[in-house]
Structures are given as C-alpha cells and as structure tokens.
Amino acid sequence: MIFPSYAINQTLNVVLCGLLVLVFLWYRFLGLKMQGFVVGIALGMGLVAGIEPLLYALKGVRAVDSQLVDLLLMGTYHVSVLVWLYFATVREEVTSNANINSVLDARKWAVEMGRLIWR
Question: N or C terminus of the chain with fewer C-beta within 10 Å?
C-alpha cells in the first residue's frame, strides 16, 4: 500500500510542475502580467514540486543518506516560503495608460448614448 500512495504523490508533483509551466506560458502568450504575489506563490510551489520527486528518488536509490535528503527537503520548503515572503513584500509599481482626455471622451459618449432611444 505504500508504493501506490508514493507513486500518486510523485505523479501529482510532476503534473503540478507541468501546470505551472503552462500557466506561465499562457500568460506570456496572452501578454498579460501576473501580480508579484501570484508569481511568488507559483515559483515557490514549482520549486517544491520540482525538487521533491528528485530528492525522493535519491532517497529510494539510497545514493544519499536519508537524513540528508530530509534536510534538503526541509531546506527547499524554507526557501520556497522565503520566495513567497519576498514577493509578498515587494511593492508593485502601478501605472496607468489612461489619460484625462480619454476619460472625458468616454463620459461624453455615455451621455450621447443615453440620449438615444431604441424603438
């Protein structure tokens, strides 16, 4: 019963990494910008989900001491939390492409559209 749960856990980690790559590529393809906090969470999750199967593989082959693998895994969790905290504290610069003239034009258009009566 241990092997199936181990295999399912590792498969879900690989799928999570693939989904995060697809999210980054999709945002890049559409030309959208993610918020810094969202990028931090995605990078932290990707770091843990990407390194965890590798460390468990080293542990399973017994190429490295089991305690060292556990320490590396704990270090990975701590680094991912630090990435999350860094991106959570970094302030984003807010820019706007709208100018006052376009807002005034939009208000004029709204007034003119209000005058139209559809029959």
Answer: C
